[in-house]
Amino acid sequence: MAQYAILIYDKIPTDDAEPRPEDRAAHDRHAKEIEKRNAMVAAFALEPSTTATSIRGDMVTDGPFIDAKEVIAGFCVIEAADLDSALEIARGNPALQHGGGVEVRPVESWGVARSAVE
Amino acid sequence: MSEPVAYVRRALADAHSRDWALVLAATARVTHDLDIAEECVQEAYASALVSWARDGIPKNPAAWLTTIAKRRAVDTARRERTLRAKLPLLVEPDEVADEVDIDEPMPEPGEDIAVPDERLRLIFMCCHPALAQEAQQALTLRLVCGISTVDVARMFLVSESTMAARLNRAKKKISAARIPFRVPTAAELPDRLKAVLGVIHLVFTTGHTAPTGPSLARNDLVDRALQLARLLRSLMPDEPEVLGLLALLLVTDARRATRVDADGRLLRLEDQDRSRWDHDAIAEADDLLTSSSRTYRGRYELQARIAWLYAAAPTYAQTDWSQVLNLYDELLSTWPSPVVALNRTVALSMVSGPEAALRVVEQLEQEKQLSRYHYLPAIKADLLQRLGRAEAAASSYRQALDLAENDVERDFLSERLGRLSPGA
Q1: Residue A76 falls inside a structural domain
Q2: Domain residues for A45?
Q3: Of B128, B178, B188, the CB nearest to A2
Q4: Could you read off the pLDDT tens digit of each residue along chain A, which spans 118 residues?
Q5: CB B55 within 8 A of CB B8
Q6: Number of folded domains in chain A?
Q7: CB-closest option in A82, A105, A108 to B180
């Protein structure tokens, strides 16, 4: 088994809009399906890219790191036997139905210190 | 028992072009690592030269080579077991039952060990859509055909270091992203097969009319594409599009000897000596097309049928143009590509006249995909010339010349232009 990060991209500027309940539900369903296959390691949805702050060198600027038409809206880490299995899971991502896209990247190494505290 | 060296060399060359993929694929199953498998296979071929000259050529050279390569692989694995345990390895499906244990005693040379499916795994891995298409082509030529990196580099007109880097990047991705070493499932097969056929077709077209450079064709690439198409046909004899692709390549290549004249100048289809075409190849293509199922006609089969109609006509004028046009209409609905739409206009001009064809070509000028495609102004020029509009034709020929980068095609276009307006 190997771990893959699935980076979920959304189009600007619509990523700023409050997600429609049915879209959110679609993402939840998709996540549940991955969990059911025992393939989910972790999943994160991010606040819109307008809330991003970037640091390059010693410069702190607003906005996402790269000026692009798409931004990362979230990511999850899954476990799969090989790239074909990972792609099969990634293909089900609801972002693909809304003009967004996903990028599948093998995870090189990882570690979790602890979950967030309130 | 010893054999003359020339005889052994020839047997070895045969075994290289015929069996490389088989030996490499079987060895990769043991090594789970492409680089080590390649090295072991290379060494097996090198040792064959000595062994075969001394002991005679084995009855089954592929099995002999596979056994030797696997032995090397086992030795290497024993030596490097601890190191290799930490490296990402080739991924295989879990259900593989006949996994070769590296501690298992190796079969004697000559024992039947390899199954043909091994090569399919290799081909589908090399043509995985997660790899860039230029990497797919290079990997296929390197790993399936066994062509050396320096020769693959020469085929694509890049430096050896560029090609070595390209191959290494691809192999690294195969192992880091775990691109599996297996034949796709039935559900994935149509898409994945399309990628494999696309790679073989691209190798062929790159060779058939070299995109740039002094010679019209690069026959080394053409021959390798034919070899790959034949291999795929032997491995997947029931796939209509595999038959279609092989038929297309055969018919197209049947004209190899007549595409340029004695001075290397391009000859149009209507000016070629049909008696010098490879009629065996054309007949073989016909057999393939006849044996193919009629329920669904895919892109390659339709292209092959069109090419076959061109090739089978006794003269250019006697080509069955309305049938060609019908097939183009069918092709366009299966594969709506502006290039197909453009090629269709040639048949249209023969059925409905150059005026009707010109109207379609002018519409196609709006297609972004054709904006740098030199065949569009070349076809337009020919139509304009046939309509007696010399000035407009000359301007189209000049446009085509601006875009064409193959020297033989450029000479052809210049000559056509020169005939229109002497002194231009």
Answers
A1: yes
A2: 2-106
A3: B178
A4: 899 999 999 887 676 777 788 888 999 999 999 999 999 999 998 888 888 888 888 888 887 877 778 889 999 999 999 999 999 999 999 999 888 899 999 998 887 777 777 6
A5: no
A6: 1
A7: A82
Flag whether A114 is in a domain.
Answer: no
Does B351 fall in a domain? Answer: no
- B276-320: per-residue pLDDT in tens? 999 999 999 999 999 876 677 899 999 999 999 999 999 999 999
DSSP B60: S
Q: What angle do CA B63, B66, B68 make, to 5 degrees?
A: 110
A2-11 β-sheet, strand order: A40-45, A70-80, A2-11, A101-106
CB pairs under 8 A between A and B: 27
B124 belongs to a structural domain: no
B192 and B89 in one domain? no
Among B149, B164, B180, residue at a domain's last position = B180
Task: Tell me the chain B residues in contact with residue A106 when contact means C-beta distances shorter than 8 Å.
Answer: 176-178
- Give DSSP secondary structure letters for B343-361: HHHHHHHHHH-HHHHHHHH
- Determine, yes or no, domain membership for B350: no
Check: CB of residue B358 under 8 Å from CB of residue B325: no
Structure tokens at B400: 């085509």
Pairing, β A53-56 against β A59-62 = antiparallel
Give the domain range for residue B375. Answer: 361-424
Say if residue B71 is in the same domain as residue B144: no
